[in-house]
Amino acid sequence: MIKQELNTVKNDAAPEHWDLVIKPQRNIFDLKLNDIWHYRDLLLLLVRRDFVSFYKQTILGPLWFFMQPLLTTIMFTFVFGRLAGISTDDLPQPLFYLAGITSWNYFADCITKTSTVFKDNASIFGKVYFPRLIMPLSIVFSNLVRFAVQMILFLLVLFYYAFFKGVGFHFTWAIALFPVIIILMAALGLGTGMIISAMTTKYRDLAFLVTFGVQLLMYATTVIYPLSASPEKYRWLIELNPMTAIIETFRYGFLGKGSFSWFSLGYTALVTVVLFFVGVIIFNKVEKNFVDTV
Amino acid sequence: MSIAIKVENLSKAYQLGEIGTGTISRDLERWWAKQRGKEDPYLKVGQENDRTVKGSSDIVWSLKDINFEVKQGDAVGIIGRNGAGKSTLLKILSRVTAPTTGTAKLKGRIASLLEVGTGFHPELTGRENIYLNGAILGMRKKEINRKFDEIVDFAGIEKYIDTPVKRYSSGMYVRLAFAVAAYLESEILIVDEVLAVGDAEFQKKCLGKMGDISAGEGRTILFVSHNMGAVNQLCNSAISLSNGKVNQVGETGKVVSNYLNADGNKDSFIDFRSARLNRSGNKKAEFLNISLHKDGAVTNSRFFSVGDALHIRFTLKVNNANETAIKTSVELKTSDGFKIANMIDTDSGFQVEGNRSDEIVFEVVMKDLRLYPDTYIISLYAGDMSSSETYDYVEDCISFEIIDGGTYTTRRLPRVAGLLYLTPEWTKLKS
User: Between the N and C ends of chain B, which has fewer C-beta atoms within 10 Å?
Assistant: First the structure.
């Protein structure tokens, strides 16, 4: 009897250990990274799901990933290259456009898909808990798979021009920055997308702007024209767009033409880091209660 | 035993009405109040000054200051009427949404099952979906690998494991979905009314499987259900919620019967002189009251199970009617107003009669009730035997409920599946 009492006293004295404490407002800087790490298998499975379900019941399968950039390139070559005669920095037009389209698509897909992540997954989010950040992350990685497939297409076209059209290779050292610009694009798309997604849980208006806005933004980026050919008056505006430096670096690395500058890339990196962290923090803040408002 | 779940002053407020127009200005107002260190002007409902705060009626407290503890290894049923806050509580404990105030502390890994088959993708095969769904529920891949065969076995779909689930029958789909969840490894399992799906046999299997979990593995279970039979069978204690507050915590049988009789005591006896009723007739004879009783019970009740005997007692006062020619009947309706029966005294070989100004008590006993779980409504009629003259017609004067459980019920009886629970004799004539 006495022993028992002693035990209870002991228990009361020791601070109780809880594995999980559910509180109204979590610290917004608590990103629960170890939770995300625990769910890494889910991340992989979601990426797999997106990839597999995309081409299920199709004949061409993953080859469909080629179609969109290929057709867009043909269209751009015809409209901007032939009809409008916009300069392509002396590069073969299809190669020039394809380089821009491939990298722009990755960024655009990341931003548009991420911006509707709450709305698209409301039914899952409303029924089961997992770190919500997994979803936008899975989008970025799924798109990365797609981007990789499209890079193969780009390289095929590049080799075709090098060997059969006598253009030759013009790789520069900047190709080493390729991993960096992928990370920058992913983080930029993810950050901006998350900011938009967090705001659209309450105000749906923004969702209408996204697809349209991204399309407009493409024209303010050096996708269909080189930075060198942009009018002096508006160049600062185009350089203000963080995607410009990324696409210019990409072209400079793979095609040897483009306006590469450390300053622009540094500026892009800075904007990306800021947007990414703001995005993650806002997303984390909204995630807890979005089920009630979406 | 140690405490596995501790809930302290948990509250959750929801905003009523349209969210959209006007929210920006409201958000700004909130932000401004916060900047000045004041309380959120929209969260003040229930306080004394609530009427002076504009727009405060937009907030409703789905849960208000909930406190309870759950011991490790307990299976706890959470019961309550619709809107009592059961689902909100589970949502908060499952971390789907956050509380407005208060905390909940939990020990051990939590698996919550607010729905089966969350995240199933129709294009993926059964195998792929097992992995995906398992991962969504928090399982690691190697964990799923280890249990894969058991899951497939439990669901009984070996043959279709590499077929996309969109080609599954709905039964197969549910079986697979539940099987994944049933093999979740966790110390705490939170289950919403997911057993409402699937066929009877599989439901039994699931209940059995969940029972195994709590008894054998020392797992703590929180179980929400409207099926009192299932709660009784599975849970050793229960929490009854009403209007967002904890009504009672305790041993299952007690809490369940209190819950069922909570508003039964006031409704199972109706005095027509004080009740507002839809009445017609010339009052040559009139009904004074009605009450419902269970077989052998002294007190009133309005909750019955399939197979019970329903005693309907009413008092009739004969004013100036023909004493020996009163036609009396008891009408039975479903909750949606469909007339099921009109039980007339003479049909049963009985004659209602009495001396003038006497108050006579009659009892009508419906033995072996065979109605599906639902609410049923009774009306009383008294009139002239030979004409259509109505003395007194008290429409919808009392209601009773048939609930799950009872001598016959071995499965859940969804009202949509039928009205009459019949158990005819089955024989094999030829083999």
Answer: C
